[in-house]
Every structure is written in structure tokens, then in C-alpha cells.
Amino acid sequence: MSATSDLAALRAELHRLVALADASVKPAPTRINGAGHPIPGYEWQVADDRGGLGRWLVRTADGDEDHCVYVHTPAHGGDDVIAIPREAARQLAMALLAAADRAHATATGIRDIAPTA
């Protein structure tokens, strides 16, 4: 390998590690809806930065007896949501994180330091 390709690989790995560090901190809610809101609780808005997916909304509802996570996707019309039980939501979140790591590794050609498979 040349010094240029070594430097490029090092930069790519540094970028990956910074992205990993950024993903290890739970994001603060985008909005906290008070008791006067139709669905009081926390919500996180996720917008697609490439302009293709649209807006996703993830929320919890204070006082919800089922303690679910509610997800609104761009494919849903109006105020429709998917209710995901909290344990399934955790599994889904971890699967999305693992898949994003794999997609990043495939795109950059840099193998994960601690591969899962």
C-alpha cells in the first residue's frame, strides 16, 4: 500500500469511529408534548438527509398502559402509527444499528473491528 492509500484508509476508519461514537449516545427528544397535547409524551423526529424517505416520527405516550413505542413512517397517511411493544422496539433499534454498520462497512470497504458474524 502507498502512503496515500494508507492515509485514505486511516481517514475512513477515523470517520467510521466518529460516526460510531455519535451513534452511541441516545438522542434527546425533538419535542416533549405536555398534558394538553393529544398524545402527551416524548417524540423524536427523524428526517431523511438524502430527500428520499421523508419524515419519520417515533414517540412514547405518557399514561400508555401498554408502554409501546409508536412509529409514524412516510408511508403512513395522516396520523396513523405502528405500535411496537418496548422489547420489540429495542430489538428493532439494535437490528437497524447493526444493519447501518454493515451498510457503512460495505460502502467504505473497511471491515468492522469486532464483526458480529
Main traits of this protein?
117 residues; alpha+beta; 2 helices
Instruction: Please describe the biggest sheet, giving its number of strands, its sense, and whether it closes into a barrel.
Output: 5 strands, antiparallel
Instruction: Please state roughly what percent of the residues sit in beta strands, choosing from under 5%, 5-15%, 15-25%, 25-35%, 35-45% or over 45%.
Output: 15-25%
The arrangement of helices and strands along the chain is HEEEEEH
Strand order of the largest sheet: 1-2-3-4-5
Contiguous helical run count: 2
Count of distinct strands: 5
Helix percentage: 25-40%
Distance between the termini: 27 Å
Low-confidence stretches: none
Radius of gyration: 18 Å
Structural class: alpha+beta
Task: Give the overall form.
Answer: elongated
Mean pLDDT: 83
Blueprint (SSEs and pairs):
Layout: H1 3-23, E1 31-33, E2 41-47, E3 55-59, E4 68-72, E5 82-85, H2 86-108
What does this molecule look like?
The chain is elongated. It has 117 residues and is of the alpha+beta class. The protein starts with a helix and ends in a 9-residue tail after the last helix. The protein has a five-stranded antiparallel β-sheet with strand order 1-2-3-4-5. Helix 1 (3-23) packs antiparallel against helix 2. It has helices spanning 3-23, 86-108; strands at 31-33, 41-47, 55-59, 68-72, 82-85. The protein is built from two helices and five strands; from the N terminus they run αβββββα.
